[in-house]
Amino acid sequence: QEGWHWEEEFSKKTKAYTITGSTIIDRKMEPEFFAWYLELAQKVQRLGGRAYWDERVPESIDLFRHANKNNIRPYQSSFSHNTISITGKQELIPTSIRAGDDLVNIQLLSRNDGKEGKTLIAIPVLLLEF
Question: pLDDT-derived band of residue 128, with 50, 70 and 90 as boundaries?
Answer without folding.
Answer: low
